[in-house]
Amino acid sequence: MTLIGRTRARGIETLSLDSPANRxxxxxxxxxxxxxxxxxxxxxxxxxxxxxxxxxxxxxAGADLRDPPHPDALVHLLRQxxxxxxxxxxxxxxxxxxGGLGLLAACDIAAASTPSTFxxxxxxxxxxxxxxxxxxxxxxxxxxxxxxxxxxxxFEAPEAARIGLLTAAGDDVDAVLEPILDGLRRAAPRGLAExxxxxxxxxxxxxxxxxxxxxxxxxRLFASPQAREGMTAFLERRDPTWVL
Length: 244
Fold this sequence. Notes:
The protein has nine helices and ten strands. The protein is α/β, with parallel strands linked by helices.
């Protein structure tokens, strides 16, 4: 069973996270298949840009707690999106949680429908948004991240746009994206590649400097007693023991 849908229209390759049974959570299998699809896009001269979207009412619920990817695999996927010499555009019409926000931050452009919601839920299960910080910290308002990282609060699409997580939000996300995709189709492939390299240099410096430390942190936290309690509580639909 494929977990990534693929379609193409006028040079735009659309990759759809298609695992609605677990709300498109980042399982080892989904991360591996998305990595392969992006590799294909990189090699295909017929692809001008890639749109990353989803089926169901959730773009991505974060890591699959039953079959999580290795932190190294997630780092590789996020870096692959940043390094791809073609623009990657996120299209969101639903909810985004935890690791899914790392996917948004890695994309060059991200747009969402107004009803979409967002939350960094890691602290609520006893871990931290470690690996996904690689693209998030250089691109998102630090004061806002401090609030949403530390509290796990849910926030809406206009706020996500205000803090730099999204490029734009609107009632009709396809109307928002139409002029953006038209602009990408009109741009020269070499011009797009070189311009993207300019825009992502600072993000890639963060990967070079911090990826190993944040990968190790993620592995330690997910193996901790608090994380085991937090993940068990989540799966059992109850509060973890530390909730006051």
